[in-house]
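Lab notebook, bench 4. Continuing the backlog of folding jobs that were queued last week. Each job is logged with the same field layout so the records can be merged later without manual cleanup. Today's entry covers Hybrid sensor histidine kinase/response regulator, a 687-residue chain. Filled in by technician R.K.

JOB TYPE: sequence-to-structure
TARGET: Hybrid sensor histidine kinase/response regulator
LENGTH: 687
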Amino acid sequence: MVIPFLQNTPPPVDPVAALLPLLEEEPERVVRLWAKRLRAETYELDLPGRDLRTPLRALMNELVRLLRDRGRDALLLWPEVVRPHGARRYSQRFEAEDLAREFKALEEVLIYLYARRNGQRVEAEVASFIVELVGEAHASAQASYARVLKTEEVRFREAAVMESVLHHVDVGIMLVEVDGAVSFASPPVSRLLGVPMRSVVGTRSSMALATVLSQVNARHPGGAPFKVLDMPFTRALRERSSVHGVWMGVERPGGGEVSLELSATPIFEENGELAGVIQTFTDRTEAANKSKALLSAHGELRRLQGRLLQRTRTQALGQLATGAAHALNNFLNVLRLRITLLRREFNPEHLDALDKTVGHVGELVARLQEFNVQRTEEHLGDVQVDATVREALELVGPELEQREHPVTVEPRLGDPGAVRADAGFFRELVVNLLLAERERLGDEGGHVVVETRESPDGEALLRVEDSGPPYALEEMTRMFEPLSREVGAPQRSLLLAVSREQVRRWGGELTVENLSGGQGAAFVVRLPLVRAGAEEEALAHARSEVEPRRLHPTRRVLVVDDDPDNARMMAEVLGEEGYDVKVAHSGDVALKMWEERRYDAALLDAVMPDLSGWDVARELRKRSPQALLAIVTGMDVRGQNRANLALVDAVFRKPIDVGALDDFLGQAQAPSSPGGIGPREDAPAPE
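JOB STATUS: finished
OUTPUT FIELD FOLLOWS
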């Protein structure tokens, strides 16, 4: 009699017979997929020269042999084969969780390949056999792992306690031997980087560490890739000294970016030999994020402050210019009317009135100069040129880039050192020059080069060069006139005039020049560098040893002024006093005339487009030490460089007192009387 329900029951499947063909025919495929899943589960690195499949292949070969020879007894025998694998993983610094992930990966691979081989069907007997087989192997490996761990803890209890402490601290520690091999890395190093460091520990090649840095996309704060040679321990090994404050950003494979601060300290033996280096890893992500936010807020605040300061000073100078222009126009109107009357008929009263009006104009200019000197409170100090230029570029950057065709700035900073100035006003000076370049280049934009370096004369040199067309000579002459009437120029010329006076008060000079080649122009700022105390004492000692000059009566006078009317009138007045007078309208022409014929005295205009009066005085003093030299200027010279003032014998302010000038030129020995005339060893007071 046949029982009906038994007719449809499939025969039982022998799991060994079902699984063995897969393992015999595709062992490499099993091993390859097992290694791939292991690498994905534990972030294991596939390093050149290190085969992850070798230990796994040995385990699979033993499993195939046992299944073929012993059948189901492999459930009891294969775990004993796997037992040493747990001890091996402990020596490779695997965690217990990593070992569990490894056998879980094997279970998934076997079921996946069996199902794919059998039309996506896995019999219950086969699935149970695989789970039991892998589970027993995992339990055996874990027991071996735990036994080794317990043995190590008993044998090296102090080391185990120390490693436990290092596991829970926030700072990662890595030990590097003298040959560059990484001998130890605490667990926090792996946590901070997001990848295990076991593949790096014990290797003598930097390839393993380079692979880790590449996997986490390590980079410098500026964005450049972070290389093994950038690690602090490499520099500490080379220089045998501590290295601190190296920053590195990483992207963890599991997600998230971290900012790490790295430091390295060399360790020495008792005999003084280098034993190795301890490198630390500290998480500074929160501090870095706060610093970025603070820097951004500070930069925005400084930009707003710079704009507000620029607007306030421009408005104040505009009000000053309006008032000064009104007063000067009144005086000029009186002068024009008096000259008209004088042309119609000669009357001494008209001459007296003209002289009185000129005196009023001179008083107004003096009051404006006095206001310019005391218009705000300066805090002089030693200002680093390059640092201040960088701040100015950061402030004015948005202004230069906001148009459709921006002005690009190329800094070429040569670290000339420090100058004696007000830091805020110096920064504003650079900003004003760059804004003037933007107005000059217009809507088409252009390229500006900001260069700093030390000049051969020992001065700090700041050049702001543009790519625009060269200036005409007349335009260069009127560049720094504060009340220029050119269209669109009053504000720019006013700012440049204020900037030039600011530089002069610091003992320097601001000029403009065309570049060679017929394309481009440059603003040039020269400022004396801060001297050391010993240099100042040596300079003072050298001046004290200079004997007073003996002067002979003056007959031949050279008048140097780029204004033809001023030069001609000065020559006529001195000619009527009996002097032999020649006129030069530029510094270069004056030097050539001096070479052709030596003069007894020179009256030098302070401001000229090519060479300033101070530059001409410096050259003339080298060629004719006994000559009388005087600066004639309408500017205030109280802030002028002492070295420049020592070059000349007197300074005369415009409008000039002809009587005082005649007394100066008519002296027969080194003058010592006050009133604008003084020897070169003293700073002459304005006449």
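OBSERVATION: The first helix runs from residue 15 to 25.
SIGNED: R.K.
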